[in-house]
Write a structure and sequence with these properties.
With 472 residues, this protein is of the alpha+beta class. It has helices at residues 13-20, 39-46, 51-64, 75-78, 100-112, 122-128, 187-211, 216-223, 235-250, 256-267, 274-286, 348-351, 366-369, 373-383, 410-416, 447-466; strands spanning 6-10, 25-29, 68-74, 85-88, 133-136, 142-143, 155-160, 167-171, 214-215, 297-303, 306-311, 319-322, 327-330, 343-344, 387-396, 402-408, 422-427, 435-441. It has three domains: 1-31, no CATH class; 39-62 and 290-465, Alpha-Beta Complex (v583 fold), CATH 3.90.1700; 66-279, Enterococcus faecalis V583 domain (Enterococcus faecalis V583 fold, Alpha-Beta Complex). A hairpin with a 2-residue loop joins strand 10 and strand 11.
Length: 472
């Protein structure tokens, strides 16, 4: 008796369906042609003798990092920011090209620092460039959500990898709605920031220093088992952080009313842990930087105008394209016409394999960003097709505890045409508005062929030198 037939179907499902109806086993392969114009570069990079080992090294380095929250301190101290110096999310940008929410956040920060009394007056200051400077957070081992603006007086979370001593930083989370990072700069925004500078920052510093390092990597491991994905859902992570710090907060010498206000603020802000998760992810990914031949993405970031990526094998070079407007759910009467293009360094979570890549851990997230539970599961499965491996620390219970898809591979993105999935908040396009919604977005497709071309060029140059075939 002959064994049953087995058929591999590549492409349209209708053929597979017809064959399956005949009781024949069908293996479905979701094959797609590579991105247009990438064939030669894909062949070059595929033939690079360093690539396989380089990518294995990059993954190993990323997975080996343990991120500990070791301090909370002002940016002027830990980043050596001087008056008039401002950091921002995403790749480099000038004031003339800045979007509404980026401008609004910078204007509010200038008022916070006392450079102007009225935030509206800061526009002229930034237009002139006199005594002010802008630089990406990523260039200072820092990440910032949404506009990501950091100024000298803002307090920062300080994370450290004990094995290497490397550190990364992120500002404290203000909550949702009309907040600076979404481009709002009204009196209530500045009042909250001044309270965070005068009360919350010093109290958190006391708590962290008294209680000892907090294992941020360990909290990430647990919160993924508890319904968070660490980008737009951080409820469990926030409560675990509060659990670790609240005893030292309560026993500090600060006024009991200040302690109560701080506990109420953190406990009522489900996004508070995001600003710990982000630098934890950056700390891990920075360990993979500077590895020749590696095609792994080590940063994805947006400034509200452009979306940029960096790879392990191309140093600090940014590959950029126009940021896209997210597709999702809007607050109140807001709609797509009110939303600014994608903004923020928070896509560092997806770069590390969580956030949108781990939506299967947090099906409830679809109530915030749109879609369905089946979409969340399908997204995580699809991201495995463009990544180099699975994180053994961070797993997805509903997918039989499979590790989250980690290590975005430029060659796999170009070969499949599948783009990284990001879930994100949406800022109003007009400065001062604040948050208008949340949704799903992908990078502009063209930045991956651009990165691939640079990797291919580096491969050709290296092989030319190694083979002694320099131009004559």
């Amino acid at each position: 008796m002959s064994s049953p037939s087995r058929v591999v179907n590549v492409g349209a499902d209708m053929f597979a369906d017809a064959i399956a109806d005949q009781a024949t086993e069908v293996q479905r392969v979701d094959w797609r042609p590579p991105m247009v114009g990438t064939e030669a570069d894909l062949a070059t990079v595929a033939g690079d003798p360093l690539r396989r080992d380089a990518n294995a090294e990059a993954l190993k380095a990323m997975f080996a990092v343990q991120a500990l929250l070791v301090d909370v301190a002002p940016a002027s101290e830990v980043l050596d920011l001087k008056p008039g110096e401002f950091l921002h999310a995403g790749p480099p940008i000038a004031w003339a090209d800045a979007s509404g929410p980026m401008r609004g956040a910078l204007m509010g920060a200038a008022s916070l620092e006392g450079l102007v009394e009225d935030p509206e007056d800061a526009a002229a200051l930034f237009e002139s460039g006199a005594g002010v400077s802008l630089d990406p957070c990523h260039h200072h081992q820092t990440v910032g959500p949404m506009a990501g603006v950091v100024s000298p007086s803002m307090w920062m979370f300080v994370l450290e990898d004990p094995a290497s001593g490397r550190r990364t930083y992120c500002s404290l989370n203000e909550g949702l709605g009309k907040v600076l990072r979404y481009g709002a700069y009204g009196p209530e925004v500045l009042e909250r920031l001044r309270w965070m500078t005068a009360v919350l920052g010093p109290l958190l510093q006391t708590a962290v220093r008294q209680s000892g390092p907090v294992d941020a990597t360990g909290i990430l491991t647990q919160m993924l088992q508890m319904g968070d994905e660490a980008h737009n859902r951080n409820r469990a992570g926030t409560l675990m952080l509060l659990r670790d710090l609240s005893p030292a907060m309560v026993t500090s010498e600060l006024a009991s009313s200040d302690i109560a206000d701080s506990l109420r603020f953190v406990g009522g802000n489900d996004h508070f842990f995001l600003n710990v998760a982000m630098p934890a992810c950056k700390l891990a990914l920075d360990a993979a930087r500077g590895i020749d031949g590696s095609t792994m993405v080590v940063a994805m970031a947006r400034n509200g105008t452009e979306f940029g990526i960096q790879t392990a094998g191309t140093g600090d070079t940014w590959f950029t394209g126009p940021a896209q407007v997210a597709d999702g759910l809007f607050l109140g009467d807001y709609g797509p016409e009110d939303a600014n293009p994608d903004i923020g360094d928070s896509a560092i979570t997806e770069t590390a394999g969580i956030g949108g890549f781990a939506m299967a851990t947090a099906p409830a997230i679809v109530r915030l960003v749109g879609g369905s539970v089946s979409d969340a599961l399908a997204t995580t499965r699809r991201m495995h097709e463009i990544t180099l491996g699975e994180n053994p620390r961070w797993s997805v219970p509903v997918l039989d505890f499979r590790g989250v898809p980690s290590g975005i591979d430029v060659t796999r993105v170009c070969r499949t045409g599948i783009l990284p999935q990001i879930n994100t908040g949406m800022a109003g396009r007009v400065a001062g508005v604040g948050q208008v919604g949340a949704g799903l977005v992908t990078p502009p497709a063209e930045i991956f062929p651009e990165a691939l071309a640079a990797l291919a060029s580096a491969t050709r140059s290296r092989l030319t030198v190694e083979l002694g075939l320099s131009d004559r």
